[in-house]
Specification:
The protein has one domain: 3-Layer(aba) Sandwich (Rossmann fold), CATH 3.40.50. Helices cover 44% and strands 13% of the residues. The longest helix has 21 residues, at 75-95. It has helices at residues 10-21, 46-52, 75-95, 138-157, 177-182, 185-192, 200-217, 235-240, 242-249, 253-260, 275-281, 289-299, 305-310, and strands at residues 2-5, 26-30, 39-40, 58-61, 102-108, 125-127, 161-166, 219-224, 270-272. The protein is of the alpha/beta class.
Length: 316
Amino acid sequence: MILVTGSAGHLGEALVRTLRASGRSVRGVDLRPTPCTDVVGSVADPDVAAACMDGVDAVIHAATLHKPHVATHTRQAFVDTNISGTLRLLEAAAAAGGRIRAFVYTSTTSAFGDALVPPAGTPAAWITEDVAPVPKNIYGVTKRAAEDLCQLAHRNQGVPCLVLRTSRFFPEEDDSPQAASAYTPDELKASEYLYRRVDVEDVVGAHLVALERAGAIGFGVYIISATTPLVRSDCAELRRDAPAVVRRRVPEYEAVYARLGWRMLPSIDRVYDNTRAREQLGWRPLHDFSSVLARVRDTGDTRSALAKQIGAKGYH
């Protein structure tokens, strides 16, 4: 049986739906009762964490407080959910005595923090797993701490743990008022597939291959983002003139954007590189900037079928 935490959230629901549809045994846990939630409770509670682990041989820990919660929740709440909740699950996994074949932790590219934005006038940052994180808020700090707990559980207790740093896949409007006011939601999301977005269907796929590879790998950290058409040598020009770079790499974008009245972002400050996840996990993402262009051209919608099925949930 596979335990999925955060089963009422975007990713948790997508995971439970996908696993159930494939006939796999899954148990969803969340604070909120939903059709995808089997256990209502907090994994920060040791009794809930232990009970959830009964009969389980793999864990996908997606439950978290997110970046938008920084404005509405205390720092202690982030510690309780993101650190203590992860610790409780890892302790329960270790106590299972080798029964747990995989513990997949859903982290975030936000863990890179200030490393994502280079100083003005310098090239865009090319982000791989080798970039040292510089967390800039309690969200990033607690997600990084939870990653370290996963590494510790593998090193000291032998729990196979893989950390997936996912880029943004939420359907809600951007949490930056400036970005939300300058572009339509789909206009902004489509452009983000160039450098910082991934479809929830591909995030699910990454978690499922991580479940299968965890035992062989032991511990690893992977960026989960759409495969970019951009290359490292584009970084200087991306900061100065992103439309020129995109025109060179994906020339068909101009006609689609022009028809929709969309504008390309004038500057791009970072690019996520998912090469390690594709090479080491065997992850094969289906959705990228070109496929999203084709979908929005043909249907007027940037979302995959699964993303439309999950819909928007809000954070508060």
